[in-house]
Amino acid sequence: MKLRTKSIYHPKPFEPNQYIRPHVVDVVCLTDEGDSEEVIAGRVAVDYLDISRAETAGQSIVHVCDADSQNWEMVYSSTIEPAIDFAGIRKDFEFDDPVQGLIFIHQVVLHPSLRDWQQMILDSICDMFPNETATVMIRGITELPDRELAELGFRIVAGHDVLFRPNMLKYDYTTADDPRDPFADLIVPPDADAHVLDRWDLDDE
């Protein structure tokens, strides 16, 4: 298994929402049809709000979120301390580490053969971004039970349908401590990509 990412980056943003970088992460796996045969067995839609970059450019974080989508308005209202300027993550989350960016996972499509690999996939996606970040994920878009989500560090945000994870902390599950080899131990059916493409919502990339 490997993660292949497609992203959009604006060197000189001219709209507030261009400080949010969309990513499409393909989960590419070997099939049982040969050592070199690969297919896309999963796909994840991830946005990254570079808070530090936006603030350095004089952008209001609330305006950046409002300019992008209703989903990002929800991310802002559910996780960020209410203020005209960015004042940090909500105080009732009870952690003091600085957060320089927000990762938002808003669509997950995985072939059933990846059921036991969901923790590794989500943890690895979080690791793709800087350490001083937090991840927000829409609740219910994976098949992970609450116990396994908690092992990854995701906590329920009261009153909202999202989960929240500070990425700078150590959790019960980490990819580095998983004894499995995602290259040697994971083989998927050759038609796994059809499952993904049939269920992927292009409008939610």
Q: What does the model show?
A:
The structure is a single chain. By secondary structure, the chain is an alpha+beta fold. The chain has one domain. The chain is built from six helices and eight strands, in the order βββαααβαβαβββα. Strands 1, 2, 3, 4, 5, 6, 7 and 8 form an eight-stranded mixed β-sheet that branches. A hairpin with a 6-residue loop joins strand 2 and strand 3. Helix 2 packs antiparallel against helix 3. The chain is globular and about 55 Å long. It starts with a strand and ends in a 6-residue tail after the last helix. The model has no long low-confidence stretch (mean pLDDT 92).
Give a short overview.
This protein is α+β, with helices and mostly antiparallel strands. The chain contains 6 helices and 8 strands.
Number of self-contained structural domains:
1
List low-pLDDT spans.
none
Query: What is the share of helical residues?
Result: 10-25%
Give the beta-strand count: 8
Distance between the termini: 22 Å
- Radius of gyration, rounded? 17 Å
Provide a count of the helices. 6
User: Judging from the principal axes of the Cα atoms, what is the shape?
Assistant: globular
Series of H and E elements: EEEHHHEHEHEEEH
Descriptive tags:
205 residues, 6 helices, 8 strands, globular, eight-stranded mixed β-sheet, 23% helix, alpha+beta, 27% strand, single chain
Topology:
Elements: E1 2-7, E2 20-31, E3 38-50, H1 51-56, H2 61-68, H3 70-79, E4 101-110, H4 118-127, E5 133-138, H5 146-151, E6 155-156, E7 162-166, E8 187-188, H6 192-199
Parallel strand pairs: 2-8, 4-5
Antiparallel strand pairs: 1-2, 2-3, 3-4, 5-7, 6-7
Helix pairs in contact: 2-3
